[in-house]
Amino acid sequence: MLLPLGFVACSDSDEPAREPEVIGGQEENKKDYYTFEEAYINQFCFDQMSYYYLWWKDINAGKWMLDDNPIEKVKSIRYAEDRWTAAMEDITPYTNTSATTYGTYGYDFQPYWADANETYVVAVVKMVYPDSPADKAGLKRGSVIMKMNGRHIENKNEDYNELLSAASLDLSVYDPETMTTKDIKMKPTDMHLDPVLFEKVFDCGGKKVGYLYFNDFSSFDSGTRLIEVAKKFKQEGVTELVLDLRYNGGGYVIIEELLASLLAPEANVKNGDLFQTAVYNDTDYAKLLKQYYGEDYANTYFSTEFNWKSGDKEYSYDTSDANIGLNKIYALVTSGSASASEATLVCLMPYLDIEVIGGKTGGKHCAGVVFEAKEYYQDFDDYLAELKKSNVTSYNQIMEEWKYYSGWKDYVGKWGLYVMVSTYADKNGNNPCRPNGIVPDIEIKDNPQEPYPLGDDREAMLRVALTEAGYTDFTPLPEAKSRALTSSLGEAIPMKSEGKRMLLKPERPMNFSSRSLRMK
Q: What is the CB neighbour count within 10 angstroms for residue 118?
């Protein structure tokens, strides 16, 4: 029986643990492997959390058992204020760093109760990507999805996921402008979803105010569009910006830093002033960071050069000639604005006048790293292969102690772990995002039931921001009229973003002898 030190193979109950069996291989080459996937995932999660987790010393991991449910185990031991660290059976949604989304309809929605009695749910479309299946089918902001595949929508994640990722959709859709209902059919497609969804310039009595709707920080390719738009704003003399982050749940910190270099005062960027401070754990990970980056490892400074590698692809962006030259930002936010969205605003506040408009943000004040179990165990195999070539004696010693890690990559599927490794603050050590989100200066609800697209000066949140900026040339609002169905809808069902704020994956030395868990 294979047992890692630090794990126990039985629970507190009288129920015996499942026994590992010999599987696969010829008789003379047989290895003992666990027949249940959880063993490999629990080992992986324990290794990563004990090394990287910000609050590892503050939690009680208890008896971490081989046959635990990894998802529930990680959730149960998280630090009290950590809502985000999670083991996932399919980590791929967190690892796609391109703007290409596979199998998408290209829209998003807000669920509402159909009536005050909460009989069933309808989905009001919030935004639609141009040329997406949703756009081609006629969906637009304000469209109301009444039925999905011949039935009412229920208030459960399975139905919401089906609306976004089903193999096909037959929808009954109500148009609030024509007050008519029609049936549409859609199939998903692979497409480039540009996170810079809308951009335009408003003339506010001679003052140029830009509008930028930015949907997420997850695409490494978004640097090109952000720089392109910033240069356009700079050329047109934009001095104030409406930054629409209302549905932006975050993404990568490196894109957050790139965007900040375009928005912050140019003098501060060129001086390389302090943008952000961070706190990591005081165990092995902090020591590794200090070894790589020196005593100043926890500070991030403004820069104009951004170079990194993800997988086999290298990214390089230069923002030195793209700083807009802003005096003020009007930030449009909701509870769906989280993580990197919040951090961008928080860490720019000491440098810029930022007026926050909308609702309280999501309250994600941490940064995490995404680890893939398959990659983790593959790294071990690669390490062994290189060591065998360079130092046979060390290889034999390690194989004697760690041999059962070899080949585990074949048994972990798409499992992964999103683990919180740091929390952040602005240059002065402040973070108004803590504990529960940034409180707006002007409170106004996002209302997707309005039939006006994002970027239209009649849309409620943008209208408030433009009014604050001194804009007067508004498109006249139509006379108020009852839109029958939408006027009788019940309350919106909260869909608070859990948020993503991800650091680039750190380089960690393959020093397995320092791990608290091993096979024997």
A: 13
pLDDT score for 217: 92
Q: What are phi and psi of 396, to 5 degrees?
A: -65, -40
- Which residue reads 């139509």 in tokens? 478
In a 10 Å sphere around its CB, with 0-12 CB exposed, 13-18 middle and 19+ buried, how is residue 16 labelled? exposed
DSSP codes, 245-292: -TT--EEEHHHHHHHHHHHS-HHHHHHT-EEEEEEE-SSHHHHHHHHH
| Residue ranges for the chain with pLDDT beneath 50 | 1-32, 482, 509-520
Helices (DSSP H) in 305-409: which residue ranges?
A: 340-348, 373-390, 392-402
Cα–Cα distance measured from residue 354 to residue 119, given in angstroms and rounded to the nearest whole number: 41
The whole-number pLDDT of residue 6 equals 33
The structural domains of the chain, ordered by start, are 1-99+194-476 (3.90.226.10), 102-192 (2.30.42.10)
Biggest CA-to-CA distance, the chain: 84
Residue 169, φ and ψ in degrees, nearest 5: -135, 130
Residues facing residue 493 across a β-bridge: none
Q: pTM (2 decimals)?
A: 0.85
Q: Which of 310, 314, 368 is nearest to 338 (CA)?
A: 368
